[in-house]
Amino acid sequence: MQKDYYRIIIFSGLTLLLNLLIIRFSFNFPKEQAVSLMGFGTLGKLSMFTGRSIRILGCIGLIGSIIPFVKKFNRYVNLSFFTTAFTTVSAIILWAAVGSLFDIVGLLDLSLRLSTPIVLGAMAGMLCERTGVINIAIEGMMLTSACIGFTASLYLNNIWIGLFCAILSGGIIALLHAFLSITMITDQIVSGTVINILAVGLTGFIRRSFLLKARLTRTAILPIIEVPLLSKIPILGIIIFTNQPIVFLMMGLVVFISIMLFKTRWGLRTRSIGEHPEAADTVGINVFKMRYLNVILGGSIAGLAGAWFSLETTGSFDDMMTNGKGFIALAAMIFGKWHPVGAFTGGLIFGFFDALQIIFQIKNIPIPPQFLWMLPYVITMIVLAGVIGKSIPPAAIGVPYRKQ
Amino acid sequence: MKPLNIIGRAQYQEIIIPFLSIVTALIIGAVIIYTTGANVYKSYQGLWQGAFGKPRAIAETFVITTPYILSGLAVAFGFKCGLFNIGVEGQLYAGAVSAAFIGYAVRGLPHFIHLPLAMLAGIVGGAVWGAIPGYLKAKTGGHEVINTIMMNHIMLKLTDYLVKNPMLDTQASIPRTPYIQETAYLPKLFPGFRLHWGIIIALAAVFLIYFILYKTTIGFEIRTVGYNQNAARYAGMNITKNFVLVMAVSGSLAGLAGANEVLGLNYTLPAAFISGYGFDAIAIALLAKSNPFAIIPSAILWASLRNGAGLMQVRAGISIDLINIMQAFVIMFIAAPKIVRWLYRIKEGKAKAEVVLTKGWGK
Amino acid sequence: MNNESLSLKGIVKVFPGVVANDHIDFSLGRGEIHTLLGENGAGKTTLMNILYGLYTPDEGEIRINGQKVQIKTPSDALSHGIGMVHQHFMLIPIMSVAENIILGKEIKKSGLLDRKKARNKIKELSQQYKFDLNPDDLVKDLPIGTQQRVEIIKALYREANILIMDEPTSVLTPQESEELFSILRSLKNEGKSIIFISHKLKEVLEVSDKITVLRNGKVIGSVEPDKTDEQQLAGMMVGRQVILKVDKNKMDRGAPILVVKDLSVNDQRGMKTVNNICFTVHEGEIFGVAGVQGNGQTELIQALTGLIPFQSGEVTIQNRKLSGENPREVTVLGTAHIPEDRQKYGLVLPYPVRDNLILCSYYGKPFSNHRILNFSFIAEKASRLLEEYNIKAPGIDTITDTLSGGNQQKTVVARELGREVKLLIASQPTRGLDVGSIEYIHKKIIETRDARCGVLLVSPELDEIMSLADTIGVIFKGQIIKTLNIEESTKEKLGLLMAGIYK
Question: Contact C327/B235, CB-based, under 8 Å?
Answer without folding.
Answer: yes
